[in-house]
Specification:
The protein is mostly helical. It folds into 2 domains: 122 residues, no CATH class; 91 residues. Helices cover 70% and strands 7% of the residues. The longest helix has 33 residues. The protein starts with a strand and ends with a helix. The N terminus is likely disordered.
């Protein structure tokens, strides 16, 4: 989940418009990732007795995790890139989606569903802001979950905690400073910006952990 910069024929698109290809590939990615997350939650392919849990609990929570953690992350990159006049669309990675299903069948999960591909001229500052937008979106989602974690009770609070934790994890993972992850581009933007992002993610995690302990 990171922006890629390549040479594509720019097409005029509004800030919130989606091409048919992009809508199709986002939809496929969401469906596959939801199934993969749900199977990973369930410890692998559900048995006959586990099907009700899988359908009515694991799948809905997995869908929320995918929408908030994956979709909004990518839309953060996309929105800021388009703000700067770039062509930006999501493209799925078929092998990464197959890998997600395969690993989830084993009770684990490794997912690389695709990325927002971007074409256009941007400054170093703009590049850094585009890259930071994805992790910042994850942090924002986690912070929105805080009141539910604190006051939502066992069920709602537990679900909110999980959603927040997934988003913080994805933000932190994407801050690893190695290409093609977001962290490498943010570090190239400037060390203070990178350290600020790390501080924000760590602080959000500490806040979540504190709320969960109350």
């Amino acid at each position: 989940m990171w922006p890629q910069y390549g040479y594509y024929q720019p097409r005029p698109r509004g800030m919130f418009s989606f091409s048919k290809q992009e809508m199709r590939e986002i939809g496929i990615s969401i469906v596959v990732l939801t199934l993969a997350f749900a199977m990973a939650f369930s410890g692998g392919i559900p048995t006959k007795g586990e099907i009700p849990y899988f359908l009515y609990f694991a799948l809905p929570i997995a869908f929320l995790a995918v929408i908030t953690g994956f979709f909004l992350h990518e839309m953060g990159h996309r929105l800021v890139a388009r703000h700067y006049g770039c062509w930006a669309e999501f493209r799925m990675w078929s092998f990464g989606l197959v890998l997600a299903i395969f690993t989830s069948m084993l009770g684990a999960l490794f997912a690389a569903p695709g990325a927002v591909y971007i074409s256009g001229f941007v400054t170093k500052d703009q590049n850094g802001k585009i890259s930071a937008a994805g992790p910042l979106m994850n942090v924002f989602v986690a912070l929105v979950m805080f009141p539910l974690v604190a006051f939502g009770g066992v069920l709602i609070g537990g679900i909110a905690y999980f959603i927040a934790w997934i988003n913080i994890f994805l933000a932190g993972f994407n801050l690893i400073p190695f290409p093609p992850l977001d962290g490498s581009k943010i570090l190239g933007w400037g060390i203070p910006y990178y350290l600020g992002m790390v501080f924000l993610v760590v602080s959000t995690y500490i806040g979540l952990d504190y709320l969960a302990s109350l």
